[in-house]
Design brief:
The structure holds two protein chains of two kinds. Chain A is an alpha+beta fold. Chain A has 26 helices and 35 strands. The two termini of chain A are 50 Å apart. Chain B contains two helices and no strands. The chains are: A alpha+beta, B mainly alpha. Chain B: This is Protein LITTLE ZIPPER 4.
Chain lengths: 1004, 69
């Protein structure tokens, strides 16, 4: 791979020209040292190197240059090779997983096809001969091939059989003789309607003659062939069923009775593995016996029926707990790699090497479930360690307490765990879990950690009482970590919970019934976290700000945690409600006088808060929005902070970090918008979460504080703004931070969380209850909501807002009223923003129809009225219309581009509205329009012309700009013949915005 | 290696599609089987007390229905 260079040595060195340069190991070492410092040294540096280093003094500068070129090239190749290797490993693992799944599915389909044919046949038989139905089922003779179904029947019949006849050898012998006769008549006779199996070979290599039954009760097959072994040997081999029948789990000979005539009677108990899940579904309704990739030796499903009594008896001793653990393990495995739950693949999965893995969610199962499976480049034990530390990756987890640890005897460990989970909004109570967690190694070298709730049905000790929590149930869940060829692990994660949706307000119920949200918040989050750490460990992640990834992650965790604490306001954290003075209950305010207790019983809890005044106050509210995609709303809130934030309030929050007293401002959202600059700090591998610093550019907002104007900093965490993620919740949380950005900086987060509430739109196969629930849920919503189509245009989200401030004893009331007002004004801003960004019906489709909201009607009225007032001419020619709808349609389809942009003195103008032609010109949509700035659209001369005409516009109300060029949002140039600009006045003659009309425009 | 990777990628895509197809097929078959099982049970219970007179009609319609799915 190394490219040696031709080098013409100068004659005085005494070497032949045209030879490869050979560097001595010392020289290479010296060069490598330089390379690690600077892979691309300047020519100056190279010359310096030759001068200063005696080892390199005999090498020509040009050679040094070539050496570095080669070295860089080699490095690049090596990196590329390593990358390809990694990609290859991932693809191979993915391939393996997909193949396994394919295998399972194929088996499932072929069994279904077989069953299908069989049933069609049966149906036909039943109708053609009414006799057949009379002679049903029981044929308890043991045949060579035992089907699963037959086996089932035997299983249930067996106990009675044994009890009745075991003490009576004669009785048994008669059964045996009868069986023998029946068997012989099948083996060599026609007791069964045998049909020869197709595909049999007639030649010498043929296995023999194989026949299958037709129209018999049960199913039967027979084979006859020649083998070169003695009969007794053949019998011995065939009797050892386990040696040749793969589906045979065990054969227990319970008793051996000499039959008197030289024969032997044995009573045998046989267990067969279920070949696939549907097979037993007809016999027993449990979901236990499905095929899974990994089958642990200890587990057994059939014992399930005996379990409850067993557990009740001794669930409080280790043996009882172990049996619960084993049962949970078996159930977990059948979900993780099998089909115990009706899994549906989640949409948006990628097959490539960057894919997170295979994510599935449950359909129609009791509770909600999600599973994910993916490859990570960490050792299994490391993965287990990370995943077990649930608080490190599950943002909604408040605390995890391990109350007792019991060695399981087989090398495994059983833990009893109490977990608290934050409520996502103020509208519902938090959840907690009381679970048993079982960690153990499987025979194939996999490591498994499974967990399930201990309830009255499973038995076991009772968990700690919970007052402010609703006890949720965890069905057998967990993770299975399989070592992967070539390093790394394949991780299977299953989450299956019942969040007790009935205890939350009806409107919130979809959130607790959505397996998609569970998948996103828990299952995929876990996998992502492991992958994130794996990538950090391997150094694949580049981080800004010179911070360690772990430090940045701690920042993110602290922000999330602080926000969750604020939203939940637990009494044991020291929160208590503060009554409102103005009587309104839309905003709830809580205070915490002992903020040192923050964080609850957790090692993630922060001891930083004592630095915050005498207390912390939180104002919070939740609201419902219709048709607002969470990602879009949060992105807007992030990018247009000035639309809702108040500089004075930000200033107050920032000042609480310093000791200096600061007057409590009165909240005026949007009163003094500040310019924000977002500086990215870090983002997760899949870009679903960003940590950033927001710099709010300082300007004095009152004359007396002119000297105090300074920049403020917010540490901000933004997540879920990727619109491609379906059904995800989005969040924007920030906390003031001082310029030092210390790793342990105190953070008092505030922010927004937007959670989509999807309606359960598929009540098929569900109980009447759910249908009722759906109906009543729709009853409560608006007419628009009840018309929710399959295109998903109509949906609701819940927005939770929480803002925290510090206060001193004497400022408590003023801070409270400021906070209350501020949050109220933010609620108003969000409603305004929501109205603007909600996609109108049809607007998401390529042919855009005019917006029809009352706001749009009003705006259009103002635009056309102002035009008429200023210019004296009519915008739509002579045909003057005043009725709203027609006016709107006329403006919408006007052939010239008409655009409105904001009119603010201290912020650069952005577009707020455009007609169809305007959208075409800017190559954008109504939603995206609001991110486009006027400055970026006009070219230099256009901007100059506008500036010079601006006073005229303000005075006369309008001005014409000469022909020019502007740019679309895609950067395409647009030429126009003339632009008219006028001031749009509201009904009370106050300025609303600026309107532009670009006449006769065309793309250049 | 690059070629091998893209081959693997394409193969994975293919298997994914294939799996999706199989899953759909399994779902359809399962539905059909449920239907058949139901009919079978009905038929058996009817033949046990032979009061039903419109047996043949039912079978015709049911078998054609299952054929469609």
């Amino acid at each position: 791979m190394m490219v040696h260079t031709m080098h013409r040595e100068s004659p005085d060195k005494g070497l032949d020209s045209g030879k490869y340069v050979r560097y001595t190991p010392e020289q290479v070492e010296a060069l490598e040292r330089v390379y690690t410092e600077c892979p691309k040294p300047s020519s100056l540096r190279r010359h310096q190197l030759i001068r200063e280093s005696s080892i390199l003094s005999n090498i020509e500068p040009k050679q040094i240059k070539v050496w570095f070129q080669n070295r860089r090239c080699r490095e690049k190749q090596r990196k590329e090779a390593a990358r390809l290797q990694t990609v290859n490993r991932k693809l191979n693992a993915m391939n393996k997983l997909l193949m396994e799944e394919n295998d399972r599915l194929q088996k499932q389909v072929s069994h279904l096809v077989y069953d299908n044919g069989h049933m069609k046949h049966q149906l036909h038989t039943v109708t053609s001969s009414t006799f057949a139905s009379g002679t049903t089922t029981d044929n308890s003779c043991e045949s060579v091939v035992v089907s699963g179904q037959q086996h089932q029947q035997q299983n249930s019949n067996h106990p009675q059989h044994l009890q009745r006849d075991a003490n009576n050898p004669a009785g048994l012998l008669s059964i045996a003789e009868e069986a023998l006769a029946e068997f012989l008549s099948k083996a060599t006779g026609t007791a069964v309607d045998w049909v020869q199996m197709i595909g049999m070979k007639p030649g010498p290599d043929s296995i023999g003659i194989v026949s299958i039954s037709r129209n018999c009760s049960g199913i039967a097959a027979r084979a006859c062939g020649l083998v070169s072994l003695e009969p007794m040997k053949v019998a011995e081999i065939l009797k050892d069923r386990q040696s040749w029948l793969r589906d045979c789990r065990c054969v227990d000979t319970l008793s051996v009775i000499p039959a008197g005539n030289g024969g032997t009677i044995e009573l045998i108990y046989t267990q067969m593995y279920a070949p696939y899940f549907g097979m037993q579904a007809s016999g027993t309704t449990t979901d236990n016996s499905c095929e899974s990739v990994v089958v642990s030796g200890q587990q057994h499903q059939q014992q399930n029926s005996n379990h409850p009594q067993h557990l009740q008896r001794d669930a409080n001793n280790p043996a009882g707990l172990l049996s619960i653990a084993e049962e949970a393990l078996a159930e977990f495995l059948s979900k993780a790699t099998g089909t115990a739950v009706d899994w549906v693949q989640m949409i948006g999965m990628k097959p490539g090497p960057d894919s997170i893995g295979i994510v599935s969610i449950s359909r129609n199962c009791s509770g909600i479930a999600a599973r994910a499976c993916g490859l990570v480049s960490l050792e299994p034990m490391k993965v287990a360690e990370i995943l077990k530390d649930r608080q490190s990756w599950l943002r909604d987890c408040r605390c995890v307490d391990t109350l007792s640890v019991i060695p399981a005897g087989n090398g495994g460990t059983i833990e009893l765990i109490y977990t608290q989970m934050y409520a996502p909004t103020t509208l519902a109570a938090a959840r907690d879990f009381w679970t048993l967690r079982y960690s153990t190694c499987l025979e194939d070298g996999s490591y498994v950690v499974c967990e399930r709730s201990l309830t009255s049905t499973t038995g076991g000790p009772n968990g700690p009482p919970s007052s402010s929590f609703v006890r949720a149930e965890m069905r057998p869940s967990g993770f299975l970590i399989r070592p992967c060829d070539g390093g790394g692990s394949i991780v299977h994660i299953v989450d299956h919970v019942d969040l007790d949706a009935w205890s939350v307000p009806e409107v919130m119920r979809p959130l607790y019934e959505s397996s998609k949200i569970l998948a996103q918040k828990m299952t995929v989050a876990a996998l992502r976290h492991v992958r994130q750490i794996a990538q950090e460990t391997s150094g694949e992640v580049q981080y800004g700000g010179g911070r360690q990834p772990a430090v940045l992650r701690t920042f993110s965790q602290k922000l999330c945690r602080g926000f969750n604490d604020a939203v939940n306001g637990f009494v044991d954290d020291g929160w208590s409600p503060l009554g409102s003075n103005d009587g309104a209950e839309d905003i709830s305010v809580m205070i915490n006088l002992s903020p040192g207790k923050f964080g609850g019983p957790s090692h993630y809890g922060s001891s930083f808060l004592p630095s915050f005044g005498s207390g912390v106050l939180c104002a919070k509210a939740s609201m419902l929005l219709e048709n607002v995609p969470p990602a879009v709303l949060v992105r807007f809130l992030r990018e247009h902070r000035s639309e809702w934030a108040d500089y004075g309030v930000d200033g107050y929050a920032a000042a609480s970090l310093r000791a200096s007293p600061f007057a409590v401002p009165c909240a005026r959202a949007g009163g003094f918008p500040s310019n924000q600059v977002i500086l990215p700090l870090a983002q997760t591998v899949e870009h679903e979460e960003f940590l950033e610093v927001v710099r709010l550019e300082g300007h004095a907002y009152s004359p007396e504080e002119m000297g105090l104007a300074r920049d403020m900093y917010l540490l901000q965490l933004c997540s879920g703004v990727d619109e491609n993620v379906v059904g995800g919740c989005a969040q924007l949380v920030f906390a003031p931070i001082d310029e030092s950005f210390a790793d342990d900086a105190p953070l008092l987060p505030s922010g927004f969380r937007v959670i989509p509430l999807e309606h359960k739109s598929t009540p098929n196969g569900a109980s009447g209850n759910r249908t009722l629930d759906l109906a009543s849920a729709l009853e409560g919503s608006t007419r628009q909501g009840s018309e929710a189509g399959p295109n998903g245009c109509n949906f609701r989200s819940v927005v939770t807002i929480a803002f925290q401030f510090t206060f001193d004893n004497h400022t408590r009331d003023s801070v409270a009223s400021m906070a209350r007002q501020y949050v109220r004004s933010i609620v108003g801003s969000i409603q305004r923003v929501a109205l603007a960004i909600a996609p109108r019906p049809g607007s998401s489709i390529s042919s855009i129809s005019a917006p029809t909201s009352p706001e749009a009607l009003t705006l259009v009225r103002w635009i056309s009225r102002s035009y008429r007032v200023h210019t004296g001419a009519n915008l739509f020619g002579s045909d003057s219309q005043t009725s709203g709808d027609t006016l709107l349609r006329q403006l919408w389809s006007h052939t010239d581009a008409i655009l409105c942009c904001s009119l603010k003195t201290n912020a650069s103008p952005v577009f707020t509205f455009a007609n169809q032609t305007g959208l075409d010109m800017l190559e954008t949509t109504l939603v995206a329009l609001q991110d486009i700035m006027l400055d970026k659209t006009l070219d230099e001369s256009g901007r100059k012309a506008l500036c010079s005409e601006f006073p005229k516009i303000m005075q006369q109300g309008y001005a014409h700009l000469p022909a020019g060029v502007c740019a679309s949002s895609m950067g395409r140039l647009v030429s126009y013949e003339q632009a008219t600009v006028w001031k749009v006045l509201e009904d009370d003659e106050s300025n609303h915005c600026l309107a532009f009309m670009f006449v006769n425009w065309s793309f250049v | 290696m690059e070629r091998l990777n893209s081959k693997l990628y394409v193969e994975n895509c293919y298997i994914m599609k294939e799996n999706e197809r199989l899953r759909k097929k399994a779902e359809l078959l399962n539905q059909e089987n449920q239907q058949l099982l139901f009919q079978l049970k009905q038929r058996l219970s009817k033949t046990k007390n032979p009061n039903g007179s419109n047996n043949d009609n039912d079978i015709c319609s049911s078998s054609s229905a299952s054929g469609k799915s």
